[in-house]
Amino acid sequence: MSNTLRLLLVAASTAFLVGCAGTNFKRPDAGALQVGKSTAAQVTQVMGAPQMTGELLRNGEKLKSVRYAYAEGAGSGKYPGVTPARAQVFLTHNDLLVAEEFISSFPNDATDFDEGKVSAIVKGKSTRADVAALLGNPNGRGVHPFIKTKGETAFIYSYTHVKGSVFNMKLYTKTLIVSFDAAGLVTDVEYTSSGEK
Known about the structure:
By secondary structure, the chain is an alpha+beta fold. It has helices spanning 2-17, 40-47, 128-135; strands at 52-58, 61-71, 85-93, 96-104, 140-143, 153-165, 168-180, 186-194. It has one domain. It has 3 helices and 8 strands; from the N terminus they run ααββββαββββ. It comes from Pelomonas aquatica. Keywords: Signal.
């Protein structure tokens, strides 16, 4: 999923740099769409027609994606030189929403998180409440087959930004996926990053 969002934000930022910013979108209200319960049709009802669609393979299953992205050049991003952009991705499997993620480099809703705290998350000991207290509310959630194990849930923390021109683009991205069992204990921690902030 991080690759999907990475490519999406690069596309949105590139679109701005060549004069097309995409269509701004409203992040859905809390509870409007629920991972593990909402359908693909409900995603479209809430969000409108997607700007992009696609497919990806995750844990041996084919997931469908609908994506929304927007970049803006008039303002400033979270950090100096960053093209402010945001994206929202929804993944479905057999018509059921199995993951959703919002990512932004706009200052007012940036999804940056403190990667230095990831090592404090301990499998089998840390709880869902511990993770939320450590990193804040997640900017995405997922269930199987987005995550490995049926019956578990996941918090997704991610941030991506783009600096530079269309000819010299520099990408920074990081993603943390923390899975929990039914009792709310951490079962898996996936962290990846690339580029320089």
